[in-house]
Design goal:
Its cofactor is [4Fe-4S] cluster. With about 400 residues, this protein is α/β, with parallel strands linked by helices. The protein is built from 13 helices and 17 strands. It binds iron/sulfur cluster.
Length: about 400
């Protein structure tokens, strides 16, 4: 579908069945927030994320209890035919956990290593080496994921010292951005030196400010050929997190930068974790980079819509299409390209409905209580009465089947 955006070419990394970079579609990732030691809850959430559209799921592997459950989680997913790749997120003790739990090292499809949280002093290189050696031994790709919040302090100090020697030193923010990039590149080079093939490395350099993220990734993209994982870290809650992530990633993706994305939303307490996968899909689909579900065109409604029926129908249809698409796709490939219009009145209703594959124009206030349905641009029939919603769903089903 992408004929507008020229993607930056990168080396391609294979992560089980998923390809990242090169000419591969941009991959949607998500991360669990369950305690990985609670295998039941983690398997449930991975399945929910997969159903919502995540193509790769990261789980934290933060202690012995978690590491001991990783292979069990993988087995349970395999038993349910969920072949989604699992990425292990390691900090501080990854070298020890990967060395101790070889079934965990084997069961994971990819390791995420944060170079800022690997260790201090001489231990740092030794522990980083250990993790890379294990990745080589088990033939696993690695994401070297640096983060503004956990930048290697020794590297930062070195960069500050070097900067102070310049006649026109950079600002502290510029040094920090450069330090992130250097940390990602130097650690990737070290991994290659240890023996990890370059086509097993993905990079990320996450920050929480939109402008900094755009600046960092724009430079990183020019300075290497590794595939890049994009994400605005700690994007925040609710609409703020969604908007900030969409703006930041939208700018980068439009420039062809980014091979895999994750939207880091803070869920409400007991909130729905799957939203991050849905938002990631919507960003890619909005840019025309991928198509996951049929597009619903719905007007915002206004004083001409006097009941909540219009909003309810639009929401029902949107949910119905999203949940049905994976089922439909098996029999009707290309169904995700479909456009469905649900419009609030005759002002724009007939026009938008005619442009969609199938559309309905609901009666606004004072209009005749009937809802014309347009199929392939032609007024096909009129729905009336209490069963408009159900009848329209049946028409959508019939359209897909035809
Ligand atoms: Fe309002 Fe009708 Fe426009 Fe919808 S189509 S926003 S109901 S005027």
């Amino acid at each position: 579908m992408n004929n507008i955006i020229d993607r930056r070419m990168s080396k391609q990394v294979q992560v089980d069945k998923i390809r990242i970079g090169g000419d591969a579609p941009i991959v949607v990732q998500a991360m669990t927030n369950t305690d990985t030691a609670d295998a039941d809850a983690t398997v449930r959430q991975i399945m929910d994320l997969a159903s919502a559209g995540a193509e790769m799921v990261r789980i934290t592997v933060n202690n012995d209890e978690a590491a001991a459950k990783v292979a069990i989680i993988r087995d349970r997913l395999d038993q349910k035919n969920i072949d989604i790749p699992l990425v292990g997120d390691f900090h501080f003790n990854g070298h020890r956990l990967l060395s101790t739990y070889s079934d965990c090292a084997q069961a994971l499809s990819k390791y995420r290593i944060n170079p800022g949280n690997v260790g201090k002093g001489a231990k740092r290189d030794e522990q980083f080496c250990r993790m890379i050696e294990i990745a080589c031994k088990f033939n696993k790709p690695v994401r070297i994921g640096v983060n503004w919040g956990s930048l290697d302090p020794a590297l930062m100090a070195r960069m500050m010292d070097e900067n102070a020697k310049f006649p026109q030193p950079k600002t502290a923010a510029e040094v920090m951005r450069e330090s992130l990039i250097v940390s990602a590149l130097e650690n990737a080079a070290r991994a290659v030196e240890i023996g990890l093939p370059a086509n097993k490395i993905v990079l990320s350099a996450k920050v929480s400010s939109v402008q900094d993220l755009i600046a960092v990734y724009s430079q990183l993209a020019q300075r290497c050929e590794y595939p890049l994982h994009l994400g605005l870290t700690e994007a925040g809650m609710g609409s703020k997190g969604i908007v900030a992530s969409s703006v930041a990633l939208g700018v980068l993706l439009q420039q062809g930068i980014g091979d895999t994305i994750r939207i880091s939303l803070t869920p409400e307490p007991n909130g729905d974790r799957t939203k991050e996968a849905v938002v990631a899909q919507q960003i890619l689909q909005s840019l025309g980079l991928r198509t996951f579900t049929p597009t619903v065109i719905a007007c915002p409604g206004c004083g001409r819509t006097t009941s909540t029926f219009f909003q309810e129908l639009a929401s029902q249809i949107e949910t119905y299409l999203r949940t049905q698409t994976p089922v439909w796709r098996r029999t009707f490939p290309g169904v995700e390209e479909m456009h469905v219009a649900v419009m609030g009145c005759v002002v724009n209703g007939p026009g938008e409905s005619k442009l969609a594959n199938i559309g309905i124009s609901l009666p606004g206030s004072g209009e005749h209580p009937s809802a014309p349905v347009y199929i392939d641009g032609v007024r096909a029939l009129t729905l009336k009465g209490d069963s408009i919603a159900e009848s329209f769903k049946q028409l959508v089903d019939a359209y897909v089947a035809s």
